[in-house]
Design goal:
By secondary structure, this protein is an alpha+beta fold. The chain folds into two domains: about 110 residues, Protein of unknown function (DUF541), domain 1 (Translation Initiation Factor IF3); about 100 residues, Alpha-Beta Plaits. The chain has four helices and eight strands; from the N terminus they run H-E-E-H-E-E-H-E-H-E-E-E. The strands form two sheets. A four-stranded mixed β-sheet has the order 6-8-1-7.
């Protein structure tokens, strides 16, 4: 009789052990977004100029000769006329408008650097035959490095935000769990002459750029870089 009782007790003890659930620890994380921006003066631009037959300037050949002399007088050589690198034949990067119209037009794109006095050139282009001037693109030789720097500051800003938010509730930031790149403002392409892409967003980090006269083109819209980085950090 005693032997049978022992077997029954062991059996029920085994059933109870199988019913125990071990809960897994909840993954505690904080999600924050950091942003940073920098405004950079360009040291190279693409200037789009349209020449049109008008008044006493009745032929494009006459206009082009005067135009080339004007460029030479402003330290702009023919080599500054951009090639269309997408074409293996390297055609000049200019094109005709309204070939069959009574007044023909021709468009040029010039690549200018700090070697050219931009405002002096623009004043020189105040001619009857110049019917349009537009800054097509702005750039800076260190643009790629600046992009990296802004992104690094954005993720630092995200970590700093996570830190002070958690300190408010006596918690600490742990390991980085996830990183996502969000909004981008990178306006080295200018949609209009003297127009600058702006946004009302305020960044966590404003980065400064030290200007040295002669190293950038003056009186030209600056390049604005702004990046947002979404992060997830472990809560210790």
């Amino acid at each position: 009789m005693k032997k049978t009782a022992i077997i029954i007790v062991v059996f029920f003890a085994s059933l109870s052990a199988n019913a125990i659930e071990v809960s897994q620890p909840i993954n505690r994380i904080i999600t924050v977004t950091g942003s940073a921006e920098m405004v950079i003066p360009p040291d190279e631009i693409e200037l789009e100029i349209t020449l049109t037959e008008r008044g006493s300037w009745s032929t494009l050949s006459k206009i082009e000769k005067a135009f080339m002399d004007l460029l030479e007088g402003n330290n702009v050589s023919k080599e500054n006329i951009i090639f269309n690198s997408a074409n293996a034949s390297f055609y000049w990067y200019y094109w005709w408008y309204h070939r069959n119209d009574s007044r023909k037009s021709k468009k040029y794109v010039l690549k200018l650097s700090t070697n050219t006095d931009f405002m002096k050139l623009v004043k020189s282009l105040d001619k009857e035959y110049v019917t349009s001037i537009r800054i097509k693109k702005t750039s800076n030789k260190n643009l790629q490095q600046f992009r990296k720097d802004v992104k690094i500051e954005a993720i630092k800003a995200a970590k700093s935000k996570a830190k002070y938010l958690l300190e408010a509730v006596d918690q600490e930031v742990g390991e980085l769990m996830q990183v996502d790149e969000l909004n981008v403002v990178d306006n080295n392409s200018v949609s209009g002459y003297w127009n600058q892409n702006k946004t009302s967003s305020i960044s966590n980090m404003m980065m400064s750029y030290s200007k040295t006269r002669g190293t950038y083109i003056e009186n030209v819209p600056e390049i604005r870089l702004r990046y947002e980085i979404k992060t997830k950090f472990e809560i210790k």
